[in-house]
TrEMBL record:
It comes from the Eukaryota. The lineage of its organism: Eukaryota, Metazoa, Spiralia, Lophotrochozoa, Mollusca. This is HTH psq-type domain-containing protein.
Length: 117
C-alpha cells in the first residue's frame, strides 16, 4: 500500500491475476472431469460461474461489469467537471450524478443506453 493507505496499481494487477488464474484453473479442472460443485468448493469460486462456463452460456472472457458508456476522454471530462463543482462548493448527490451522466451521454450522441463508444 502507498502512503495514503490505498492499493498501488501493481497490487491491484497482482490481485486481478490471482483471481483470473483461480477461475481459469477451476474451469479447466471441471473439463478434466471434476464435478462443478467440487471445483467451486476447492477453488472458492461461485458454482453458478463454473456452471455457466461449462455449459457455454458464458464465455471465459466475459467481464462481470457492463460495458462502458463513455470513452476514457469523455469520462475524464465528466470527472473533472464533478471535481470542479465540488471544489467551488456545489456537490452532487448520487442521483444528480446519474442524471448528469445520462444527459451527457445524450449530448455525446448516445440516445440508446446500449450504444457504446
Amino acid at each position: 500500500m502507498n502512503v495514503d493507505g490505498k492499493k498501488t496499481v501493481s497490487q491491484t494487477v497482482k490481485k486481478s491475476f490471482k483471481y483470473k488464474y483461480k477461475y481459469t484453473k477451476s474451469f479447466y479442472t471441471t473439463l478434466a472431469g471434476m464435478y462443478v460443485t467440487h471445483a467451486a468448493r476447492q477453488f472458492d469460486v461461485p458454482e453458478s460461474t463454473l456452471t455457466g462456463w461449462s455449459k457455454e452460456h458464458v464465455s471465459l472472457d466475459a467481464k462481470p461489469s457492463p460495458a462502458r458508456i463513455f470513452s476514457e476522454n469523455e469520462e475524464h471530462q465528466l470527472v473533472d467537471h464533478l471535481k470542479y463543482m465540488a471544489d467551488i462548493g456545489y456537490g452532487y448527490t448520487k442521483l444528480n450524478v446519474q442524471y448528469l451522466a445520462a444527459d451527457y451521454a445524450v449530448s455525446c450522441g448516445r440516445n440508446d443506453p446500449m450504444e457504446r463508444p
